[in-house]
């Protein structure tokens, strides 16, 4: 597709001259999608490896929790700072730093000789992931500025985001079973090496805003608030809501985040300009993805439990079991999500996708101890995947549409931040509901009977799937209310299609 730009003619007048967009932008999409895949799959791939790692390194169950929480704490709390740094120091530069750092941290974790070394490596992975993820999404946003191409690019990127968790389960199962749990971390070296070479060859950046500064008070408040909130929610698993180390950090985190908003209102160089969040489409995308992220957690974690504990699947079979869902995510994200979003905008698509996903979760509430994968699990997985594809692609597009380029990094960071917080809230709430449902079922029954135990576990899964259904319905309502009708705003900093 050619565009016209103004060039002086022989008489010194401005005359339109045809130029062709850089064909390398589609290769840039491959590089960015590869990096996004690495970050997203790392949220689940290590979970599959944990039992073997625990056996190998001999750490306790509480330490095992920190292997997961360490990553979530660093990633969730540093995303906003990572997004703003990419705006100030260059997105390509932060992207490459993030890739190399993530790879080195993965190598450290793969070579871990003890618990502390593995937890430190996971924290470093999260920190460099917080530099990498917003840089990748903002580079995508500033590379694809024409509506139709942008829809296709975000469709592919959204498919990767939605399918990455399932790919992590499959890859983690294969590597753990046939190679070593350590390769669940070492595999990032391969992905990062390819992405770094691709970034150096194919990614293009814009001049940075040299007048911009880091909002130090805002950064401190954001990091403290998010660390406390994610920590409190993470600590909830296995503890009561009234436990001091659960409720205390959550309340402290919320208070500090309120202070963060007040700081941002007065800062001359805010870490998160409130104009980014207060736009209806961007606000709608952040709210929708946070709520849908909480619902999606119920699918990945508790359906994995069902496949392993009830159907007796191995780690590899479990990963393969999620593949049909990944296919359906990619189908809707790369077709309807990319073709329809530029024409009609996110308002019809995201509520429809969330309702379809709710329907899939509703189907899974029918699972019984004697259900089969083909008739009980597979239809629900496919339906949920079809819905998620319509949620992820339009929301990621809307999160960065119409934002000025000097805010693209922090706008991209917000979508990752709310997804992380939504997942943490989902983890805490759904685990709590599952435990309560199982214990309620066991009241007055023979808790030592294996069939009774299995039925109690099934009761907990049903409860989680019902709540996840509710989360998706809520996401649909929020999206319908907040999103504006019509196509997304064009990129305000994009080169116009024709100059006069």
Describe how the helices and strands are arranged.
Blueprint: E1 3-8, E2 14-19, H1 25-57, H2 61-89, H3 91-110, H4 115-143, H5 147-178, H6 183-202, H7 216-235, H8 244-266, H9 274-278, H10 280-310, H11 315-321, H12 323-334, H13 336-344, H14 346-364, H15 373-400, H16 408-442, H17 450-482
Antiparallel strand pairs: 1-2
Helix pairs in contact: 1-2, 1-4, 1-5, 1-6, 2-3, 2-4, 2-7, 2-16, 3-4, 3-6, 4-16, 5-11, 5-12, 5-13, 5-15, 7-8, 7-16, 10-14, 10-15, 10-16, 10-17, 12-13, 12-15, 13-14, 13-15, 14-15, 14-17, 16-17
Task: Give structural notes.
The structure is a single chain. It contains 17 helices and two strands. The protein is mainly α and 500 residues long. α4 crosses α16 (408-442). The longest helix has 35 residues, at 408-442.
